[in-house]
Amino acid sequence: MAIKTQYQVKKNWMGDPCLPKESIWTGLQCRQDGVESKIISLDLSGNHFDGTIPQALCTKESLNLRYDTNDGDLCNGKSPKKKNISVLTVAIVTPIAAVLLVSAILIFCFCHKKRKQQMTLGLVHQYSVQPTGISNSVSHVDIKGHVLMSDDHEFTYEELVKITNNFSECIGEGGFGPVYLGQLQRSIQVAVKMCSRKSVHGQGIKEFLAEVDSLKTVHYKYLVMLIGYCTNKNHLALIYEYMPNGSLFDHIRGKKANVQTMSWLQRARIVHEAAQGCVLPIIHRDVKSHNILLGEDMHAKISDFGLSKSYINEAQTHISVTAAGTIGYIDPEYYFSSRLTMRSDVFSFGVVLLETVTGEPPIVPGVGHVVQRVKQKVSDGDISAIVDPRLEDAYDIGSVWKVVDIALLCTREVSDDRPTMTEVVEQLKHALALEEARHIDGHRDNGQGSIKPDLSANWGPLAR
């Protein structure tokens, strides 16, 4: 009984193992040598021992010892229980480890994607502000003061009719369609851009959805804010904050240019602010003077991201379409690559800079492109031959030269040779500072406006 208890044997092991013969222990074979009985065979199979067989039994030569191979090597100290525990441990730990590994990979991928998004938007956040009179939580209300727009920013067509007084005042016409003046509650004015009928279907819808997707969550200081949109079956519309002072084009070549000449200080400040709108990791596709709008106090913002695309990696991200931008502003590389990148916007902005300096259109029939026209005059070092004559030498020469220089760098034919918009912003900041210093110093004399440029100077035209 003690043996059975000690080794937890499941057989009928009680009393003398070999006697009487009728009660020999199960699994034993005995041999009678006179009055003595000897155990000659011991079968331990099927007991599932918790432990090992004593060495006294394992080393007994006259004993035929048998046990299950599944129980382990019981004579060498390898317990079957330990083996079972080891197998069980592996069976449990392996799937847990696999789940943890997969979870870690998924978390890493999510965090990596989130980080890329944060990197993409991190730069723009430093410029973000809310337009005056428009809050974060409620962007507009109807005539009765009820909230019309929640986080989805969507208007109904009937609401647009009320806002625009049945589309009574058209304030412009663009590639997307006519633009109407609208008014929300509390006298908040908005610009309602209606999609023209001819572009409601096909590519027009794609362009509309692209603009909404890009801008419905964007609130940046140097971008015209998208307040809402309408996706009525027969009417598509975008509702923007209203910019009361028109566009840069209006003031240098349009309807307002003949009323009052925009000063060089104003021009330098406007292009510096507009450049900051183009720093954002978004491909605009149609940077031009028409799309630089002026709000209160003549502060500039970039508008019309109708064909824009979020930008992550310039080497991988591009837009391939049949047409892009406005003639005169389009990157020359686009004509043979059908690709637009951030450097394409840099080229377009360079054209805007030259347009701002000269007061001339990008292309003059019979004369050529503004880039070629300015390059021909740069070598003479006569800034007055380049600058808008309406300015009448009321500018800092160094400031103008710096803008011309950065403009020609922006409009280099090979896109990789162009500066980044961040570099452009920094140079325009210096140009603006020079002109501001002129005003602080009491409008110091500019001389005759004609000098031979010092190619080693920081503000003059660089060697090309």
Q: Could you characterize the architecture of this molecule?
A:
This protein is of the alpha+beta class and 464 residues long. It has 3 domains: 2-76, no CATH class; 154-241, Phosphorylase Kinase, domain 1 (2-Layer Sandwich); 248-440, Transferase(Phosphotransferase), domain 1, CATH 1.10.510.10. It is built from 12 helices and 15 strands. The strands form 5 sheets. It has a 6-stranded mixed β-sheet with strand order 4-8-9-7-6-5. The chain has a 3-stranded mixed β-sheet with strand order 1-2-3, with no helix packed on it. Strands 10-13 form a two-stranded antiparallel sheet. Strand 5 and strand 6 form a beta hairpin. Helix 7 packs antiparallel against helix 9, helix 9 runs antiparallel to helix 11 (397-410) and helix 11 runs antiparallel to helix 12 (421-440). The longest helix has 46 residues, at 80-125. Mean pLDDT is 75; it is low at 119-150, 307-322 and 445-464. It comes from Oryza sativa subsp. japonica (Rice). Residues 442-464 are annotated as: Disordered. This is Serine/threonine-specific receptor protein kinase-like.
